Amino acid sequence: MNSYYNLSMNNLKIISGIRQKKSLLCVGLDTDIQKIPAHLLGYDDPIFEFNRQIIDATAPFAVACKINIAFYECMGKKGWDSLEKILAYIPQEIFTIADAKRGDIGNTSAMYARTFFETYRFDGITVAPYMGEDSVKPFLEYTDKTVFLLALTSNKGAADFQWFSNGERTLYQAVISQSLQWEKETGGTLGYVVGATRPDDIAGIRTMAPDKFFLVPGVGAQGGDLHSICQKGKNDQGGLLINASRSVIYAGSGEDFALKSAEAAAALQKDTALYCKEI
Amino acid sequence: MNSYYNLSMNNLKIISGIRQKKSLLCVGLDTDIQKIPAHLLGYDDPIFEFNRQIIDATAPFAVACKINIAFYECMGKKGWDSLEKILAYIPQEIFTIADAKRGDIGNTSAMYARTFFETYRFDGITVAPYMGEDSVKPFLEYTDKTVFLLALTSNKGAADFQWFSNGERTLYQAVISQSLQWEKETGGTLGYVVGATRPDDIAGIRTMAPDKFFLVPGVGAQGGDLHSICQKGKNDQGGLLINASRSVIYAGSGEDFALKSAEAAAALQKDTALYCKEI
What we know:
The structure is a homodimer of 279-residue chains. Chain A is of the alpha/beta class and 279 residues long. Chain A has 12 helices and 8 strands. In chain A, helix 2 packs parallel to helix 4 (77-89), helix 6 (133-140) packs across helix 8 and helix 9 runs parallel beside helix 10. The interface between A and B is large, with 60 and 60 residues.
């Protein structure tokens, strides 16, 4: 194990999950009440019940769980209620990520950090870099947490600004190189969001950030190629959390939905296990 | 009145406020329970009580009210409760802005738009552009709302990426010119966040976007020069919402805090009235 690896307690939780489960899978709980099986709608809290069954079904195959805050926030207080129960239900060994993409001036980012790291006790969060250093550092100051900064995202719109180039480097490359400095200054733990739809770029990003975990959305519904991403993006510790949301949680729509999700998660675990052998 | 102005019903609400109150003031409710006067802590909901008194005190002088979501979100469900009551309490003629700085892939941005435009009925929202077109359009598709896209922000970190240049234009200029196209394609209403700490740049931004409202944070606690910004940034309809948060809401800390806030708001109204004469 090379000494340059950032072995925060936090990342050790991910690495230990990868070793134990031979998986790089992160399950994304983007739960939309309009998409869950009809038979769950009679429950007091159908969103919780759906997530509870998905968590039970996929936990054996997943090292992390990413909760897309938008899907809970849009339900108002009821959504935050469900979120709290879901967080409490997720097994302790699974690394939890608030997919929140927050970022604001310093005193406001500090409030967002407090929200997701103290009010809710997530292990990590996704953060947007547009507002620069003082918008990111308040998250990094929680040195026992992991901050996944948006670098090169999986969506079509990523091309609009992230590839903007000053001749020497692109915006996303500038985000990576400057944020590595902020990580040093705070003693925090960085990761990056790198879309699975960008296999040609991930190798270069790995060179820039050899020891960082990449949270990789875009396999499944968005069409990213898992094997290509794993081959080009992995490092000695795995270094990847391959997120699948819709393709796992909506794998089925009937009474056997949880079984279908388990099957989808198991298939992804099996695919990613190829890259966990030496970890 | 020039025909190129985008007279959405929504912006008419702002313009009518400017005409009536002779003010460009937007009051920012960044309410932190650790900073409100001690005598309010005995109330059932001290955050609501503080904001209620600030709203009463400043409403005669303000055309808009910006609620910084981070400060409510960090209190969990209780915070969203306060937020709901505050929104219901704000007088109908005041334009409400969710300062949320959200932005994600299309299906997730659609959920955030639903949160702030449907679950809560804000008139406008701040949005972060890093993820590009499909992260912004779901907000613009609410054609009766105003989407204030981050362009050049007021904080120190703005220099890290927003001035990144491809030789022809900076990132923030690219954000403005591309988003104007998205506005056309959706029929929505754009505005921009332009920091008051950037008086030298606002004239250029006004040239790029002559008919847009700019939400201008950074006067007060962040040190922006109000007169310089107004002279260089205004248009025939005002075109500016000058936001003051901490300098207004924490103007006093005793039992007369609301009076002190009224005085601070009145002073800003008077200062901005100079630029409202011909509107």
